[in-house]
Amino acid sequence: MGAIQLSQSPDGAPIFSVTARTPTNIAVIKYWGKRDEALILPLNSSLSVTLDPNDLAATTTVAISPAFEEDKLWLNGKEVSISDSVRYQNCLRAVRERAQGIEAGGEKASQEQLRSWRIHVASRNNFPTAAGLASSAAGFACLVFSLAQLLGVTEERPGDLSAIARLGSGSACRSLYGGFVRWNMGQASDGHDSIAEQVAGEEHWPDLRVLVAVVNDRQKDTSSTAGMQQSVRTSPLLLHRAKAVVPERMVAMERAIAARDFQAFGALTMADSNQFHATCLDTSPPIFYMNDASRQVIGLVEQWNAQAGEIKAAYTFDAGPNAVLFCLEADRGALLRRLLYHFPPSDSTPLNEYVESAELLKEASVS
Ligand code: DP6
């Protein structure tokens, strides 16, 4: 990953390219609400788990050449206008202005050339786009990571690249690191300290398991960006959450992760997901990201935990109905059995409404 490839355009001009893959992340302490829309500065810090890139990831190829006439972007094989996307432009500009020289296959490109040549980007997700599975997180993280490789950009300060990925989508800044990642909200008005940082590596908690139950892979009605704007404008609970709840929860969550304390980790994860969705309900007009199937998943997890007298599994939902479930390896089989019992694979199951079969239970290990 990361090596610069050299090829040629039909008229012999060099094309330098890089292909990279970046996983998505699932927040266990949620980011919801911005204090600065343009710089994507959050109202609170957040914390996520990065998934295995083999399961839920974006793969992006970026290429640069004097033969290209304009910047272009393809998402999942479809060309998308880059001039309509301020976020893509912001990321491109930020990496481009830090370009250094590169060399590949005996060809060189100077800093000046890299800053003036046009760029082509082709990105693909191996999971439903905009169905609440943080596809923008993986996509922008991958764009920034691969562009930085292509243009020879290295970080002056740790986290610099995550600050650029943040300009694409807030949650993207956390996808540049594996394991458990904190996004510090930061204080500075230019956002240079609003960066992601790894709190524990992927090897830290080997028996933690993540299961993604795809309840619905349709595009969601309210994007995270629009939803959080609405919440910032109208939800009194949001500010309370950002100021009075999340700071303590961040500390408690980091402590739980450090101690590999699944009871504390699970309790905090579920509480934070529920408060995030309560904030959505507290928004006017209210936003509903979860559906009946999501609530059924909550019910079966809560019931199992109550029966066991301890937390066996923990759920979290982002801006969509799909459930992300955490458990320990010892309980993985039992969790899968419970899900399949409640959501049996069947042709008559309304498609997209229920977890369809084991195949849709994308299992991801922490990476
Ligand atoms: C519910 O990062 O998608 O997944 O910054 O506007 O692009 P923008 O929003 P985005 O929001 C993610 C919200 C969330 C919680 C989280 O990932 O922390």
Model description:
The model is unreliable at 347-367 (pLDDT under 50). This protein is α+β, with helices and mostly antiparallel strands. Strand 10 and strand 11 form a beta hairpin. It has 9 helices and 18 strands. Helix 6 (236-258) runs antiparallel to helix 7.
Number of strands: 18
How many helices does DSSP assign? 9
Order of strands in the sheet with the most strands?
1-2-7-12-8-9
- Helix percent reads 25-40%
The SSE order reads EEEEEEEEEHEEHEHHEEEHHHHEEHE
Residue windows where pLDDT falls under 50 for at least 5 positions: 347-367
What percent of residues are in strands? Answer: 15-25%
| Structural class estimated from helices and strands | alpha+beta
Bound molecules: ligand DP6
First and last CA, distance? 16 Å
Largest sheet: 6 strands, mixed
What's a concise summary of this model?
This protein has helices at 86-96, 111-116, 135-150, 160-168, 224-234, 236-258, 262-281, 292-308, 332-342, and strands at 5-8, 14-23, 25-29, 34-36, 41-42, 46-50, 57-65, 72-75, 78-80, 102-104, 107-109, 118-125, 180-183, 196-200, 208-213, 313-316, 323-328, 361-365. It has 367 residues and is of the alpha+beta class.
